[in-house]
């Protein structure tokens, strides 16, 4: 390959990288709020992570919440998952899956119930978008 072709490939690669970086700043931040909706007097221990970020362990009293914000990835593959524990049991769930959630909310509200997590539906004003726990829970 000639040096001119190499320079052209390098220039195109840098241009693509620059465009992707600029575009990521145009993507609105996602705001995730996770509420303990188990039962009165029952604490929820929650530990959320992504591939790159560990948000730590948090203990939520009934009706309290944990909130975190981030900028979703330009390529549409952002994933945050949480391990949730109460009364000696544990479950886990993908609390933010960009392909699933970005069309529903930028501010995503979740109620954690014993049966599973339920997302707030802005069309019905209810927490009626309920999902099962991930398999292996």
Automatic annotation (TrEMBL):
Keywords assigned: Secreted, Self-incompatibility, Signal
Entry keyword annotation includes Thylakoid: no
Protein name, entry field: S-protein homolog
GO biological process terms on file: rejection of self pollen
Cellular component annotations (GO), alphabetically ordered: extracellular region
Pfam families membership: Self-incomp_S1
Entry's localization field: Secreted
Signal peptide location: 1-23
Protein family membership: Belongs to the plant self-incompatibility (S1) protein family.
InterPro entries (alphabetical): Self-incomp_S1
